[in-house]
Amino acid sequence: MKKPLVLIVDDEPDIRELLEITLNRMSIDTRCAKNISRAKALLQEESFDLCLTDMKLPDGNGLELVDLIQDRAVSIPIAVITAHGNMDTAILAMKKGAFDFISKPVDLLALRQLVNSALKTIEPSHSKDNRTRHILLGDSIVMREIRGKINKLALSQAPIYISGESGSGKELVAKLIHRQSARCTNPFVAINCGAIPLELMESEFFGHKKGSFTGASSDKQGLFQAAEGGTLFLDEVADLPLSLQVKLLRALQEKKIRPVGDSREIPVDVRLLSATHQNLNNMVLAGSFRQDLYYRINVINLHVPSLRERPEDLPELIDHILIKLIGNSANDKPILSNTALVALQRYEFPGNVRELENILERALALYEGNRIEFKDLNLPITTAINKGLTNDQDNAACPAFNPADGSLEDYLETIEKNMLTRALEDNKWNKTAAAKQLGLSFRSFRYRLKRLNLDNKD
């Protein structure tokens, strides 16, 4: 079996020798370069499985190699070696596509862990089922883009900040990134930061030693140790107190933790994914979230769209959820009436996919026959339609629904057209401003204009 081949780029002979000896003992072949020019030549001559490069080189910066390798037809993992404490450079390298980083002086255990993780991404045995389509449902453009990003981000070790509204599927995205990665055979540990009592947070994250505090009757592993070799997902990371944010930052930068009551630090190999429905940038400005931690966990941002940004995905999601809720009786799955489906497509879904599931679960308890009707959904439809209306003139434009005047679909469509047109008129036909007035994303606003044949108005 052919040995892996690693390119080592560093201008210090001692560092090159240390890395070469360490990798050779791991049954890995190496080639060494003392500058960028020589590294580029070697990359042309041979096929490498990994590149380890120093950042500061005589004829340039290691980021040049990161860019070069990312632009190649067949990319390979590249890890950067940074000066101790120089996290800004490491973060920039990972934003550009570097697999991971390691600080000087080089910790050999951390080096071996990094190399093993990187080589797993290119092993033939690491053939993943890249079909995330049947798990992260939806054929809208935004969902196709997210599935493509998941497959790409799974090849990296960079921390990812998953943003999105409550109920939009952030934890599902985190699980898929883990499942598609080389860490998939190791634990995926998820925790809601807002659900941990403040006095127990440090112990929960980093573990504790027996007798370190009242009630600590035995040693306990923390979340970092439980996720060793795998992925740690911190949901609602905005709920972390400032005191723990400092310790979390150190753990991420040093890749080591100190259990409560322990005198020594323990190396950890964990990839961090985090999420929240809050605006972390605003929290940084307000001083309730550390800016340095924000930059550290937000190396790559992955936004999960709200359900109202992808209404075209609703029929498929509804069908999937109904089958899941009915279980073995899937053959008896009810259908949605046209009126019920249109009402759902008009609804804003503040709770997103989670709310859709709750609505359908409630409807299954109320419907009769084999069809779910509009009345079975119990939607706060008046609230949704009248959102933002405050005076008698506006309410007069939204009369009560009378079946004798036409179908519910026609009624809802008329109301929606009136609201969209009014918002455009109020904002002198500035679509961005009109969308903001209605509390819609620009993408959702534009979709509605097109569906209602209002997109050609000027």
Please describe the topology of this protein.
Layout: E1 5-9, H1 13-24, E2 29-33, H2 36-45, E3 50-54, E4 56-57, E5 60-61, H3 62-71, E6 78-82, H4 87-96, E7 100-103, H5 108-120, H6 141-153, E8 160-163, H7 170-180, E9 188-192, H8 201-206, H9 223-226, E10 231-235, H10 242-254, E11 256-257, E12 266-267, E13 271-276, H11 280-286, H12 291-297, E14 300-303, H13 314-326, E15 335-336, H14 338-346, H15 352-366, E16 371-372, H16 374-377, H17 381-385, H18 392-396, H19 408-426, H20 431-437, H21 442-451
Number of strands: 16
The CATH topology of the largest domain comes to Rossmann fold
Strand order of the largest sheet: 2-1-3-6-7
* Multimerization status: single chain
In what range is the share of β-strand residues?
5-15%
* Number of domain units: 4
CATH class of the largest domain: Alpha Beta
Number of helices: 21
Helix share bin: 40-55%
Contiguous runs where pLDDT drops below 50 for at least 5 residues: 381-397
Largest sheet: 5 strands, parallel
N-C termini distance: 67 Å
CATH superfamily of the largest domain: P-loop containing nucleotide triphosphate hydrolases
The backbone outline, from C-alpha atoms, is globular
Describe the structure.
This protein is an alpha/beta fold and 458 residues long. It has four domains: 5-120, Response regulator (Rossmann fold, 3-Layer(aba) Sandwich); 141-305, Rossmann fold; 306-379, Helicase, Ruva Protein, domain 3; 389-458, Arc Repressor Mutant, subunit A. The chain has helices at residues 13-24, 36-45, 62-71, 87-96, 108-120, 141-153, 170-180, 201-206, 223-226, 242-254, 280-286, 291-297, 314-326, 338-346, 352-366, 374-377, 381-385, 392-396, 408-426, 431-437, 442-451; strands at residues 5-9, 29-33, 50-54, 56-57, 60-61, 78-82, 100-103, 160-163, 188-192, 231-235, 256-257, 266-267, 271-276, 300-303, 335-336, 371-372. It has a five-stranded parallel sheet with strand order 2-1-3-6-7, with helices on both faces. A five-stranded parallel sheet has the order 9-10-13-8-14. The chain is globular.
